[in-house]
Amino acid sequence: MVLLLGNYPPDQQQSMQRFSAMMLHGLRSRGIEAELVTPQPFFGKIWFLGQFVAKWLGYIDKHILFPRRLRKMLQRAFHGVVHICDHSNAVYVRYCRPAPVVVTCHDLLAVRGGLGEDTDCPATFTGKLLQKLILRGLGQANAIACISLATATDANRLVEQNYSRWVNVVPLGLSYEYQVIPAETAKSRLAAVPRLDLNRPFALHVGSNLRRKNRDAVLRIVALVKDKWDGQIVFAGEPLNSELRRLAREMGIGDRVVEVPDATNELLEALYNRAVALVYPSRFEGFGWPVIEAQACGCPVICSNSGPLPEAAGDAGLFHRVEDEAGFSADLLRLTDPAERDRWSEKSLANAKRFSTTRMIDEYVAIYRRLGAEL
Question: How many Å apart are CA 367 and CA 166, to the nearest integer?
């Protein structure tokens, strides 16, 4: 039996929800008994008191009500392993004893920010306390599965040494079977996207407005080539904020910006298939899921050479320092040549094969068995 612990639904941590759903489906498809449980909103759904109050009431749901529920579940003759799917929930490790516990660590950027390191994740006083609890919980786990070597390096440096605990590197698989699709299929899916001119090429960014995602750099990179390339820039994910929209207008590319909020997997797949390139000058990452998603669709990736991105993109990535926006723009122009794009597309498809969900599940099953689980 594998008990998967997921995230609090009102927090809307979509990537973490995708990962826990992947684990549940992957384990059950092997015939392994698995259950996914999450803290449920009770106090935190009292939204009429305001979002700020609801957030703090949500802590009661997560840190008082859910631990009680968890203990009751594990007292019912539980035989198996507990897998905490997001390291930010490592505070639950102590409530899982005596069952062995695996924690997937996606990144330690917030923990490092709480310790005063520059990761674009500044922490409030209460945030620093929470990050210390998370770090302590990681130290109490039997195994930590890091999604990249860069994250494992941070874990080995920051988590208190415990020789009964293992730190493993288990790269992510794809959460959806992204692939090359017929041109007409992609065109049909994209036809309804407002402002997207399918007669013009476009570059793509997938992510949010968090500072570490560096969306302002994406705008500057496109502005550098606006006189040589009549393309658009598509932002999939969180809608741009007013500051980014103002920046686009000031640089004379406001009419080239296309926003695609809440894109479905099918729509993202079409965007990856049609884009000239994924432009991904991220400052800090735990892994970089959009990188391998794009490559699985044959979309070349121009990304920063920081953190785990070189691990994900492999020899198919076009890398630059975060500050080298001229280098990013030069490669974007380079990929407007169809032959050059085709060459990097082939390399991308080959690299993406490394990231199968089957391989990921295999590695987790091996960790569970190493901890004594009979699956």
Answer: 9
